[in-house]
Amino acid sequence: MPVASQPVTISGIPATKNVIIDGVLRFPPTGLKALVIGAGIGGMMAALECWRKGIDVEIIEKATDLSTLGDVVVVGPSAVAVFHNYPTMLARYAELGHDVELTFASKDGTPTMPSVEWEWNREGASQHGAYPLRINSMLGRNALADMLSDQCKRLGIPITFGVTIDKYEEDITKGVATAISLDGRCFDADVIIAADGIGTKSHALTLGHPVRAVKTKYVVYRTMYPTDRLKGASMAEDIISRLDRPYLTFLRALAGHCVLALTRDFVVINLTTEEDATTATENWSSTVSNEKVLSSLPEPENWSPLLDEIIRHAPEHSMVRWPLVFRDPQPRWTSPHGRVVQLGDAAHSFLPTSGNGATQALEDAASLGECLRLGAKADVGIATKVHELLRYQRVSLIQHTGFVNAQDLHRDANGTEPARKGLPFVMGSWIWGHHPEKYATDNFAQARAHLEDGSPFKNTNLPIGHKWKDWTMEEEISKQKAGIITIDELKNNGDWSIN
User: Its domain of life (predicted)?
Assistant: First the structure.
């Protein structure tokens, strides 16, 4: 067996020979070479899944090292399902993940309902996609990235840093895709996976034009810092001293909301307020002072004193000011001949209130890896388009939930607006009960036939009974301005229950 920490070459290994590295069983070689652009969460998971499915793969990343930016992500069972195939990584996930309990409160901190589990961990909920694993839903973004990077190293997947890709091309006569860097270097592969985020240049090939970032009326202030900074913060120190398990609370207000997370090791703030952003550019280096964050609160004296403490004890200029922008669902993630395919934020960006950005990037990786395996070298172009067909409606619908969840959270629990019945932020078992790899396996042939000869095909990775239709951000905002409770409109369309 090869040494896990060394690069691994499988060229020439017969398809009948088992390759098991770090406990990961690799499928027989497909003869495919894949190039992943972007060493983010989705990009590294895509590379791992390509490797596992018998595809030679490498990663190119524009940064000089893995990014240390970001706070926390929520990773649902449908994404965690793929970790079962990586024993070392699965054990690491169990150590790194935080099994948080959820609370919902008015902006002054008064609880509006008892604490609850994430819905997939609740008694009586349907079996989730990663069963029997207990889902530790909250992970530090850096910790998750390190976990994936370490797994890439153990499998010998190379990552080249410091290369910015400026252009994508495909040559159907040669059967190759090419990524061209700013300094003119060309990188060829049978298939290129553009996992380089919202600023990807691959839209010029997939859509023929850039994708416009549209400003919402919101800005998010976000940070994550160690709890040892909270010395003298009496409320926060008291909560942490009595903390049996990590704590995540939603403070709800008419003009925004705040997500606070406390563990014994770190604190997280995600504060969303109505504020006219002067730019629609997301930038992790755009930080502001703690006083600026406090001054952004409407009626600051009416917000929880715990929030005030946590903001005041944050390291100065650690709070990122993130203009909240959105891109309408893009129905094409693939180049004309399918040799370039987008993944994660490059294909579909999410509002934080969807709770699904990281989850759907990881789902993409599991689906795409299996589609590429089934298409193999001869049919790589159709394989990426099958993946797109299997994923687009599901992802677009989950993107839509970000808007309706925001409307549901932005309600004054103190009485100026009546609260809706039921818990906020419900996703439904159709989201977290899904198994993206199995779905691709089971539906590949029928989806391919639909693309090639028009045979009937209907996605079943949506709520049972859901009547699908495309939507746009402008339509959604217009409805909300007209006073329509769009969460009711959306989540009464099919079965969104958790059991």
Answer: Eukaryota
pLDDT given at position 30: 95
pLDDT of residue 71: 86
pTM > 0.70: yes or no = yes
Is 222 one of the catalytic residues?
yes
pLDDT of residue 113: 85
Which CA distances in Å does 284 have to 115, 318, 321?
Answer: 32, 10, 8
Instruction: Give the model's confidence band at 4: pLDDT under 50 very low, under 70 low, under 90 confident, else very high.
Output: very low
Q: 270 pairs with which residues across the strands?
A: 222, 259
418 pLDDT above the threshold of 60? no
DSSP-derived 3-state class of residue 209: coil
Under a CB-based contact definition with an 8 Å cutoff, are residues 368 and 49 in contact? yes
**What angle, rounded to 10 degrees, do the helices at 380-409 and 436-453 form?**
120
pLDDT of residue 280: 46
Helices (H) and strands (E) in the chain, counts: 14, 20
Alpha helices (H) in 338-485, listed in sequence order = 357-375, 380-409, 429-432, 436-453, 473-481
Alpha-carbon distance 376 to 295, whole Å? 56
- 180 close to 186: Cβ distance less than 8 angstroms: yes
Closest by CA to 197, choosing from 77, 82, 284, 75, is 284
Q: What is the pLDDT of residues 234-291, one digit of tens each?
A: 999 999 999 989 989 999 888 789 999 999 999 999 999 988 655 545 555 578 999 9
Average pLDDT, the chain: 90
Q: Are 257 and 409 in contact (CB under 8 A)?
A: yes
pLDDT, average across residues 43-50: 98
Which amino acid appears at position 36 of this protein? V
Percent of the chain scored above 70 by pLDDT?
Answer: 92
The set of residues, in sequence order, having a beta carbon less than 8 Å from that of 480 and lying 6+ positions away, is 403, 407, 486
Question: Is the pLDDT confidence value at 9 over 50?
Answer: no
Amino acid (1-letter code) at residue 9: T
Q: Of 26, 52, 92, 222, which residue is the catalytic one?
A: 222
- Name the one residue in this structure whose structure tokens are 């530090």: 140
Pairing between β-strand 191-194 and β-strand 72-74 as defined by DSSP bridges: unpaired
Whether the upstream peptide bond of residue 132 has omega within 30° of 0, thus cis, is: yes
Written as six digits, the tokens of 224 are 């994550």
Domains and CATH numbers, the chain: 19-65+143-211+328-491 (3.50.50.60), 214-326 (no CATH)
Q: What are phi and psi of 102, to 5 degrees?
A: -105, 140
Going by DSSP bridges, is the β-strand pair 191-194/165-171 parallel, antiparallel, or unpaired? unpaired
Q: Which two tokens stand for residue 385?
A: 């388009």
Three-state secondary structure call for residue 176: strand
